Structure prediction request, 55 residues.
Amino acid sequence: MDQIEIDNWAKVAGNMEAAGTTDSWFYHRARAIADGKPDPMPNISELMPSSSTEE
Prediction:
């Protein structure tokens, strides 16, 4: 992620804080990225159920 994206996430987080809308995963993602922490959003593979080949 480049600095422009990080700056945009910081703006999103700041706007959400100003509006008092900090109870969502979107806010927590924005704040983490803005603070230089790892993106807490899981990879798509982590969201998909594992396939089973049981017969």
User: Anything to note?
Assistant: The helical segments are 3-19, 25-34, 44-47. The chain has a mean pLDDT of 87. Residues 25 and 41 are 8 Å apart (CA to CA).
